[in-house]
Specification:
70% helix; 291 residues; mainly alpha
Length: 291
């Protein structure tokens, strides 16, 4: 705790994001009470809190001493915060939470630009999202890259940003938040999620069972708990193995059940709208957009 200091810039940015979202959400609730249900706002705020816990809380000051804490950060940034934020359907609240003069004169022209739209469609293709998340996960856990992140504060921040960005991309095809257009069968998401567990399982199994300390940094780090560096590494591997398995396979099982039972309707129904109890009404959404 003595080594922890509240990161003012990060905290301010996250607070502003939460306030802008809530401002837009309240505005929408007054005009269209059923447009975005309260559970979505709670989900978005939960995602904001998860990001702060990973990079702003005292947890962030322990990642140089415990690999398990570092792994918990990665899981929060890549597996917890992104789906919570996307389930919050952030597009409409942000469009209505920002000053309307800025939204109409600046943001609208940017979002309507054909180059921006093509870029958005390209980076949200499932294959691109899957490979990006996999390469970021494996790349930053290579010993040389991992050591670089621990030695340099700049690269440490880049590491966290890449985990968060890759997490948003990975979960985008799964949740398909408005106004994204679903361009593939919902059945595609089942193997998408299942295959995503394989590189995580391989990495976590290696950390748990290799029998040696992979990251030499932790051999000389002060031991804050009654656990050796190797035991810490085994714990980190087990945490990743168990958490990722449930986080990826649970929505795959849920979606499979919905599709097989037929309660999801047409198989191209979006998880964020058709497979959840509350929806953003499609006819209302364009009116709310205001662009």
């Amino acid at each position: 705790m003595e080594s922890w200091a509240l990161p003012i810039p990060v905290t301010i940015v996250l607070l502003l994001a939460a306030l802008v979202y809530l401002r837009g959400w309240l505005h929408l609730r007054r005009a269209f009470p059923d447009a975005i249900r309260p559970w979505r706002a709670a989900s978005f705020l939960g995602g904001v809190v998860s990001v702060w816990l990973a990079i702003g809380s005292p947890l962030a000051s322990l990642d140089e001493y415990l690999l398990t804490v570092h792994m918990a950060q990665h899981l929060l940034l890549m597996t917890v915060a992104p789906p919570l934020l996307l389930l919050g359907a952030p597009s409409l609240p942000f469009l209505h939470g920002l000053p309307q003069s800025f939204t109409r004169s600046v943001l609208a022209s940017i979002l309507r630009a054909p180059l921006v739209q093509r870029f958005g469609r390209s980076i949200t293709e499932p294959i691109f999202c899957w490979w990006t998340a996999t390469l970021v996960l494996v790349g930053w856990h290579m010993p040389a890259a991992y050591a670089l992140g621990l030695r340099s504060e700049f690269w440490h921040e880049i590491e966290h940003a890449s985990f968060f960005g890759a997490g948003l991309l990975f979960w985008w095809p799964v949740i398909s938040p408005w106004p994204s257009v679903l361009r593939h069968s919902r059945w595609f998401i089942v193997p998408y999620l299942f295959l995503a567990t394989l590189p995580c399982d391989a990495l976590s199994a290696y950390l748990a069972f290799c029998g040696r300390v992979v990251y030499s940094w932790y051999l000389t780090a002060p031991r804050l708990v009654n656990m050796s560096a190797l035991q810490d590494q085994e714990c980190a591997g087990a945490l990743m193995w168990v958490f990722v398995t449930f986080a990826y396979l649970a929505p795959a099982v849920f979606l499979t059940t919905k599709l097989l039972s037929g309660s999801a309707g047409h198989e191209t129904t979006q998880l964020s709208s058709g497979d959840l109890p509350e929806t953003i009404d499609a006819p209302v959404a364009p009116k709310l957009h205001g662009l």
